[in-house]
Amino acid sequence: MTDRQILPVIPLRGMTVLPGMITHFDVSREKSVRAIEQVMVGDRLVFLLTQKDAGELEINPDNMYSVGVVAQVKQLIQLPSNIVRVLIEAKDRAKLIEWKETEPILKAEIEHFELESAQMDEASKEAMVRTLQEMVERFLELNPQLKSDAYKYLGEMTKLDEVLEQLAIHASLPYTEKQVYLEAENMSAQYEILAKYLGNEIEVSRIKRELQDKVKEKIDTNQKEYILREQMKLIREELGDDETFSEADTFMEELKKLKAPKSVKEKIEKEIKRFKSSGANSAESSMTRGYIEVLLNLPWDKASKDNRDIKHAKAVLDEEHYGLEQVKERILEFLAVRALKANKGPSPILCLVGPPGTGKSSIAKSVASALGKKYVRISLGGVRDEAEIRGHRKTYVGAMPGRIANALKQAGVKNPLMLLDEIDKLGNDYKGDPSAALLEVLDTEQNTAFRDHYVELPIDLSEVLFIVTANTTQTIPGPLLDRMEIIEVTSYTQNEKEHIAKDYLLPKQIRRHGLDEAQLKISIKALKMVIADYTREAGVRNLERKLADICRKAAKEILETGKKTVNVTEKSIEKYLGKPLYSIEYANEADEIGIVRGLAWTSVGGDTLQIEVNIMPGKGEIMLTGKLGEVMKESAMTGLSYIRSIAPKYNIPDEFFKNNDIHIHIPEGATPKDGPSAGISMATAMLSAILKRPVKSSVAMTGEITLRGRVIPIGGLKEKILAAKVAGIKTVLIPAKNKRDVDDISMEIRKGLNLIFVENMEAVLKEALN
Asked: So where's the catalytic machinery, residue-wise (predicted)?
């Protein structure tokens, strides 16, 4: 029997409705909402069609199946956001014949159709009914949680069409399978679809039950994590996945590939077996796992090949660093010896000592680049715990290897270049002395079997190339300093800073700030002003910051004004950096009584100190001002004792020292000053004030004084001479025993200076006093 009619169409997404179903769904698309509202005033019949592509939001007639169901709307509920919830009862199958309307709603001519009568006798139908009922019963046995009244009534039904209809409604078929069922032409085709579905579900449930039974035989049901691991293991076994292993098996595979001494491999194998036998949830298991991973990641016998080309090393050092000729020469000598020895045997530990910003760390990085070595850096500044170097013992919670072992693991080879940065800033407290722990690391006779408390196996550090950096050797313990070869990285001269700024720093900062060299030009005179008036340092770190300031302001100016090029000259430098921060205290124009120019070494290079002395009537007291340290106070007292001892020679009456006070002052009183090199300067200033004889303004001096008037050597000579030259001093008095140090100072610094070597105060006074 056929019957045609025209009905509104409601497209469904991800859902297929079958005849006999009473269900609800939400409608939000405008055409569907209008169609529902329209049928509510009539017979309430709609035609439900399923979309082929459930993800498509737009209603497209070409995206719909041609077979659906005629349904009656039973209830309508208005929800927020213009959503309508519809309760329907599906009646008959129907087939789309022709679209009648697509706007404002969908309407189509449909044709009702019934299933074709299959050529089946009653016995065949009965067999199908029983088969389906038995399959449902078997499925419910494997999944008892799914039992419901619907399945219970199914067992009491005797007609094939009723069984098929109820089973299709309650089965969890995907909507595409339900659509195939809906389009089936007869009950035989419908039976095949449902029987295939039930058979597949029964097999899946059976396999799942078997897996669960196997797991239950091995483990306690309360151990959730263990259950998941075992299920995963059994699934892998069922799939025949031979490429997956347990963690212990994975460790064993890694151990086979590991290049390490036999004793190390035996130790690791023993730990893996212990890990395998321990429970997965035990505290020991996680600790052992971490320990094994550390041992497997250490480069026991894995080494990189060094580049022994000394010319290449020289080219790399010259390309990346300007000046520092003596440092480069010493490093090249060191590399040459390593090349001749084929990197075998102990290597000296190089310690680069110098002020901040002079390129100590970058030299180490350049050496690694020249040799083709892996580079690792360990910052020792502020390290106070010995365990940071030697590691923690495994018995402690949260134990881990020390920094040396971790650096080797990070490098991945046993012969990297290891930079120990800021060794002079090591601390110590109740947790131990890390500098004492470094004694073994930096001892070439002992570090072939360095013991890390965590690793517990000897680590060979003899092939590691250690380079150490420090700002000063004064805070490095003597035994540790004895293990290192000191290389002085001294201050840069004005000329060296100009070259470094022009050839290295400025191009780097221009690139970092998104500019090119055509967009920013800095004149040589402007560069000299930046160095002299805006930075006061031994290195070039602040100089680089000032150049970065100029680049930032230039970038802003280019974007705001549209300029193609920004030119920075000595006249416009204040526009970019503001007022000058420093002024050089140049030599006095006239000779003055009681004023001497001394020379000092600071952590940022050399400086000049103007020492002033006044004589006043009093009680024979000596006053020292200018925030002087203990050493400088002692030097002043020593100088005064020497002057009193030679008083008769200069016809100074004995009562002079009882009836007069001597006041020694060094300007910039807020700046702490200390050191053993101002003795002759203070003695000269005092004698000048006592004798009323002026001191030559073109003379500066440095040196310590003894009670007998001998002048003893001092340090930091290069920085002091450089400071004298910048201040416009013509003559510098230097202790005679420092003559050997002058030969190491470049002619660029010494040029234009008259260096006079003095052995005693008589020679000093002869050159300094008018």
From this structure: 677, 720
Please count the CA atoms within 13 angstroms of the CA of 171 that sit on its side-chain side. 31
Confidence of residue 665 (pLDDT cuts 50, 70, 90): very high
| Position 647 in a domain | yes
| pLDDT tens digits for range 575-617 | 889 888 877 667 777 889 999 999 887 766 677 888 999 999 9
Query: From start to end of 649-727, where are the E strands?
Result: 660-665, 694-695, 699-701, 704-705, 711-712
Predicted local confidence at residue 498, as pLDDT:
85
Q: What six digits make up the tokens of 714?
A: 């001092």
List the 699-701 sheet strands across, edge first. 622-625, 660-665, 605-617, 595-602, 699-701, 731-735, 754-758
Question: Based on the structure, what is the number of domains in the chain?
Answer: 6
Distances (CA, A) of 472 to 52, 195, 321, 611, 704: 79, 88, 21, 26, 20
Show the tokens assigned to 612. Answer: 């002033």
The answer to whether 699 and 729 have CB atoms below 8 angstroms apart is yes
Residue 347 lies in a domain: yes
Catalytic position from the list 32, 677, 681, 688: 677
Number of neighbouring beta carbons within 10 Å of residue 504: 17
Residue-range definition of the domain harbouring residue 549? 497-577
Q: What is the pLDDT of residue 152?
A: 62
Q: What is the band of 700 on the pLDDT scale with cuts at 50, 70, 90?
A: very high
Kindly report, residue by residue over 74-130, the tens digit of the pLDDT: 888 888 888 889 898 988 889 888 888 888 888 888 888 887 765 677 888 888 888
Q: Which residues contact 314 (CB under 8 A, 6 or more apart)?
A: 328, 332
* Residues tagged in the binding site annotation for ATP: 354-361
- Cα dihedral 631, 633, 635, 640, rounded to 10, equals -170
Is 265 known to be catalytic? no
Is residue 583 in a domain?
no
Out of 31, 546, 720, 725, the active site residue is 720
Binding residues: 354-361
677 catalytic residue (yes or no): yes
Task: For residue 688, give the CATH number of its domain.
Answer: 3.30.230.10
Supply 371's token pair.
């040799």
Phi-psi region for residue 444, left (φ > 0), alpha (ψ -120 to 50) or beta?
alpha
Task: Determine the straight-line distance between the first and last CA of the chain, rounded to whole angstroms.
Answer: 139
HSE, side-chain direction, 13 A CA sphere, residue 673 = 28
